[in-house]
UniProtKB/TrEMBL annotation:
The gene is metE. This is 5-methyltetrahydropteroyltriglutamate--homocysteine methyltransferase. Residues 434-756 form the Cobalamin-independent methionine synthase MetE C-terminal/archaeal domain. Belongs to the vitamin-B12 independent methionine synthase family. PANTHER family: 5-METHYLTETRAHYDROPTEROYLTRIGLUTAMATE--HOMOCYSTEINE METHYLTRANSFERASE. The lineage of its organism: Bacteria, Pseudomonadati, Bacteroidota, Chitinophagia, Chitinophagales.
Amino acid sequence: MLKNNLGYPRIGAQRQLKKACEQYWAGKTGREALSGVARQLQEEHWKLQLQAGIDLIPCNDFSYYDHVLDMSLLLGAIPERYTPVVTDVKGNTETDLYFAMARGYQRDGLDITAMEMTKWFDTNYHYIVPEFTAGQQFRLFSNKVFDAFSGARQVTGKIPKPVLIGPVSYLLLGKEKEAGFRKIDLISRLVPVYVELLNRLQSYGAGWVQLDEPFLAMDLDEAEKAAYEYAYREISRSCKGIKILLTTYFEGLRENASLAAGLPVSALHIDLVRAPEQLDAVLKTIPGSLSLSLGVVDGRNIWKNDYRSSLALIEKTVAAIGSERTMIAPSCSLLHTPFDLDLETDIPGEVKNWMAFARQKLQELDELYRIAAGETALLEANRLARESRRASARIHNPAVKARIAAMSEADARRHSGFDVRQPLQHKRFGLPRFPTTTIGSFPQTDDIRRLRAALKKGLLTPEQYDAEIEKATVEVIRWQEEAGLDVLVHGEYERNDMVEYFGEQLDGFLFTRNGWVQSYGSRCVKPPVIYGDVSRPGDMTVRWSRFAQSHTERPVKGMLTGPVTILQWSFVRDDQSRRETTNQIAFAIRDEVNALEKAGIGMIQIDEPAIREGLPLRREDRQNYLEWAVKSFRISAAGVQDETQIHTHMCYSEFNDIIEHIAAMDADVITIETSRSQMELLEAFAGFRYPNEIGPGVYDIHSPRVPSVAEMLGLLEKAAALLPAGNLWVNPDCGLKTRKWPETAAALENMVQAAREARRRV
Ligand code: GLN
Ligand code: ZN
């Protein structure tokens, strides 16, 4: 039985890669320094895996920026606009070309945009989207995979396993940049390059090669299925000496089980954490020639494995196909887990004993192997750890459980419908038509960041810190009044991050010191860990909202993060459903909403930017998710009087398929990102006859560009042609946290002008 690892975190235990890349980009270090750090990290990680007894050690899972971008470079899918980076600028190398594709290139007289980035399935990792044209050609371009193979072999003394994205998934991850062709039809041009690549790897001495085909576990149409049949038939025909390990993850194979098991490859990997039930189906159809890699250790979470249930899956497989054809593995690449639990010094011992990060997960594979081989004593420690977690008073809060159990439909319903609420709210606030507002945060200047750092270091007392934050808050209130905004915000200066801020104040959450996970490029996030029943020991935001409101006659929106977003951006419990956890968070937020109302705050915004990204990967699961996600939002919002105005905010531009669910959230006002699509997506709201008030973003906050009055007025007129003008708000696309003051001030002043003009014209 082989121990197989699918991939290891690349950024380094101390985020060395982040630092090395950022210094290189800033021109502070050269290519040698960067590749030195890369080599050292890979060596360390290979040795670590060797010591942990991994048989199939991955190579080429390392990447400077993103492994999908690596594939585009490897396959020569380099959009034409990047050619000048290497032809026109002396001294530029493949590394500069690579980073130009990732980040754009604005120097040496060139101005080339970056390639698009999007989410990697349902993770918080983002990949660089391959770009295809109708005449798309592929050819072997970079040598990285061959270098990685030689390097890993030298360091480990073993034959490493190169990791590549398989041809079908590579195409499906990409985007057609012009009309007139389907990306999947490029398969016949792509496969010969894979054949060449695999044969070249074989000439280097490769045996196993891992081809990631996560799309085998997604919804596939007929052309895509045919592409699978075609690609792997060709590869098996033309690459005789290579053993292909086909990996699927993040979902079960479901109706694709026989397609996947029937492909002429040497081994198939399945994710048994996400979809343990698929094992039976696969065992039923598996041909005698195929090995099975069992993804039993959770690659998406930080909890210790339950050896007993993993062992049951392993034993069932061994009984069916024999141990020679069985491999054990993490469910997916360990890229999505933090590096090393041993680095955590602040987590209470009891809780730490329930957890495992990437390094510990390698040990878990080794222990599972030994248990399967008869060392059953190892089971006992694991059982005790699991049992201590199950029974711990730390995670169980009977009051929270009772509240969830007693939950009723009424908890998710406002007293009256929107038709009753709207006139009451209009009367209460007396706002002009086209009221202006912002999404919550104002620029987090270096001064503000320095305050937080000083507080952390103990250079400022909490009182001194609060006094400074108060000063900044009063200033931003004054500024908004002078700029003529109608509904104000307090600026969110007291917050580090919109999830962390709440997690730190809620029971049931813990924070790591070093639990970084790559989000994109050199960016990492440190998600909170939800380990127990969630409750709210006290007010979280009331102090700041009340303070801000006391400095102005105009309404100041209370500002909260919604339950789904908090769930989505955290490591979650694996001992209860996501739905259950979300409902617990929803009641905690509801209490905060009610406390804000009691403190006299008349408008409360509950941000849910992550509702859409929580959508299940399989279409058939989506309805169910959307129902509970929307309901949990409603629970958080529904405890207030009709006169209290609930706002929500979302920042993504694909609404068409979920519009009815957004309407079902029944927020009095929704602000959304629209400016980049020129209000096009409002057509979906119009088509649905979206009943409530809506603030389509009139300018893109992701860029420092200051839009003109005329431009924003044009968008407002467009919006008014689609939706009742009396329901429209005027606001930017998202929070202003990452912007600088000069452009923010200029853009908002223009926005206020545009609203005033719209009141005259429409
Ligand atoms: N209120 C938050 C802010 O303005 C919303 C952030 C978001 O949508 N991601 O920063
Ligand atoms: Zn946003």
